Fold this sequence. Notes:
Blueprint: H1 3-17, E1 20-27, H2 31-41, H3 46-54, H4 60-79, E2 88-97, E3 101-106, E4 112-117, E5 120-128, H5 129-134
Antiparallel strand pairs: 1-5, 2-5, 3-4
Helix pairs in contact: 3-4
Amino acid sequence: xxxxxxxxxxxxxxxxxxxxxxxxxxxxxxxxxxxxxxxxxxxxxxxxxxxxxxxxxxxxxxxxxxxxxxxxxxxxxxxxxxxxxxxxxxxxxxxxxxxxxxxxxxxxxxxxxxxxxxxxxxxxxxxxxxxxxxx
Length: 135
């Protein structure tokens, strides 16, 4: 690795070290269904988002709720203090497609219909509201 590339990588690592995030990989639901839940909580204060997710009827909401609790815990671990109401918010939430499981279902007259079992990756970044105002 060249000097310039190494310096750039180190700057990227330092910037990432100050961010608090959590990732959920290979969640067994389609990205479209997960994005409906993600759009519901994007940019919302974290404890309000936990309430929205807890009382949502969507199956994907329980996965996102668990992931959000993990992101809050990661923030508390990095900053050495407990999260208070009104302090943290969901800065970014991304839902990406993961590899599909492809299966065949028997169909009439010797044919086969393809079944695509979709999955997704979810990433949540949390940040303090004060940092957003300072920037």
